[in-house]
Amino acid sequence: MSLALARLARRRLARDRSAVAALASLVLIVLACLIGPSLTGHPPERIYPDFVRVPPSLTAHPQPDELRPALQRLAFRMRVTLEDVAQEGDRVRLTLTADKPIDTRAFRLLSRSGLFGEARVLERSADDRRIVAEVPIRKRYFVLGTDGLGRDLLTRCLAAGQVSLLIGLTAALAALLIGVAYGAVSGMAGGTVDALMMRLLDILYALPFVFLVIMLLVFFRAGLWLVLVAVAAVEWLDMARIVRTQTLSLRGRDFVRAAYALGLSSRAVIARHVVPNTLGPIIAAATLLVPRVILLESFLSFLGLGVQEPDTSWGVLIAEGSRALESAPWMLAAPAGFLVVTLVALNRLGDGLGEALDPRHQSIVPKGGRQLSEPGDAETGR
């Protein structure tokens, strides 16, 4: 692809407002998934037992009616009795009693809970069986609510996005490396070699994907790497067919014949002439491949064949949310929303790239220059 065609493709893509909006949405989602978990104030694995299945809201927790239950649970672990609770702004005054002298080291449980800060002893009896302490309250916000274990759902969705996007990008990269090489070699070889290579593709197409994953699970432990291997093993097939078709249409062109006449090897012709002239369909197909892989991983995780704890993905969160749909619908809506927005944006960006890279749509008209026909210049403008 010539530099002139590349500039024209960028102009076309910039004029497509929906494609630009899709690209901006993807950039925001990727940045949110990368840096968002460190900004929410909740580690992805942090469990808040007092806030199980809390609905989404902008209200800070713990609320006044949630203070006493949370403190009673902590007092039970401290082996003391919570005699009185008095909230004063962002601080709470506790009166604790026990049958034995109270060890102040037990106050560490308050700060470890994530809801309270370091306790400060205000009063204590002579026998240390009664202590009055003041504890600062740490405000917690659950914008998208919490899940069935009390984990912040926003943080979980952002951390799950890292895994889902990683699987999509890795599978797309594998499809590019394997599919482009296989399709280009098959198309340039032609004849019997091409026929045998295509029959191998037909055999691989005939293998049920879910059956392949189940067979892998028989010999290997389920996990992220297994999903990557299973998805990458089959998603290059379509890319190989696309590149083969493009290669068959290019191998009889004059610039390919001229390259052979100059003494270039088949490998050099493929690398320097065939593959660069198929970049348009390749890039568009790769962009559309990413959402398909993400959806496939979500399907596997929904069936329990994909990502396993402690790792998580949008598919895992959707599976958890579907089991709590009646009591906590936000557990399904939150990860499904992230997944839908990502898939729609990727598909729209793929359509926009396909149109921008299609040389049949417009011709190049440089400033003060002649009009260039894109199909011919894609071959000779190298």
UniProtKB/TrEMBL annotation:
Membrane topology listed for this record: Multi-pass membrane protein
Positions of the ABC transmembrane type-1 domain: 161-350
Record's keyword terms, sorted: Cell inner membrane, Cell membrane, Membrane, Peptide transport, Protein transport, Transmembrane, Transmembrane helix, Transport
Localized where? Cell inner membrane; Cell membrane
Q: Which Pfam families does the record match to this protein?
A: BPD_transp_1, OppC_N
Regions crossing the membrane: 163-185, 197-218
Please give the chief subcellular localization of this protein. Answer: membrane
Q: Which domain of life is it from?
A: Bacteria
Q: Where is this region: Disordered?
A: 360-382
What does the similarity note say? Belongs to the binding-protein-dependent transport system permease family. OppBC subfamily.
Protein name as catalogued: Oligopeptide transport system permease protein OppC
Instruction: Specify the species.
Output: Methylorubrum aminovorans
